[in-house]
Design a protein that fits this description.
Elements lengths: L1 E9 L5 E12 L14 E7 L5 H14 L2 H4 L5 E6 L4 H7 L9 E4 L16 E6 H7 L3 H19 L4 H7 L3
Parallel strand pairs: 4-6
Antiparallel strand pairs: 1-2, 1-3, 5-6
Helix pairs in contact: 1-5
């Protein structure tokens, strides 16, 4: 089992001035001592990291998809859902992500708004879920299932042609 530690620096008034998260990973051991100056304005919090094998994660994905309302889920009929451990360096660069930013999922394909009967898409539409970032942000299987559902709905919206800006307005940003 691994614990992820979040290290937060507070100023004299108790406001967060800087935060380093998921940088320190140590094996969890009973009775571990932290030789850490708690009086220096730093606090340390620990959360247990979810780590599922492929089969367990696939089961959670299937449950999450079943929970999506049918009027949204019906748009998945011809969409492939794929799971990868994490986004590749090329994908992160393509998306313009910094090292500190996470990518939970992405849509690859031609949105319904951009399709043409004359030029159909060459490849199937695909929603890719990234297991490691999803597991890192959730503490329980229930949270993971909910976050996967939100991520899939977000990516279905891209398939339908809804922009990031509009998704943010709707609360799915």
């Amino acid at each position: 089992m691994f614990l992820y530690h979040t290290l937060t620096k507070l100023n004299i008034d108790g406001f967060v001035t800087s935060q380093v998260s998921s940088q320190i990973v140590i094996p969890a051991k009973a009775g571990i001592q932290f030789p850490f100056p708690y009086n220096s304005g730093y606090i340390i919090s620990m959360k247990q990291r979810l780590r599922l094998n492929e089969m367990e994660f696939d089961r959670v994905v299937k449950r999450a998809i079943r929970r999506i309302p049918s009027e949204i889920r019906r748009h998945l009929k011809n969409v492939l859902i794929s799971v990868q451990k994490r986004p590749s360096k090329e994908v992160r660069e393509e998306m313009g992500l910094y090292r500190s930013e996470s990518l939970l999922g992405m849509y690859r394909g031609t949105s319904l708004m951009d399709r043409s009967e004359v030029y159909p898409p060459l490849y199937p539409d695909t929603i890719i879920l990234f297991q490691d970032p999803l597991e890192r942000m959730c503490e329980t299987i229930e949270e993971l299932e909910e976050q996967i559902g939100i991520t899939v709905v977000h990516e279905i919206a891209h398939f339908l042609g809804i922009t990031e800006e509009r998704l943010a307005e709707l609360g799915y940003g």
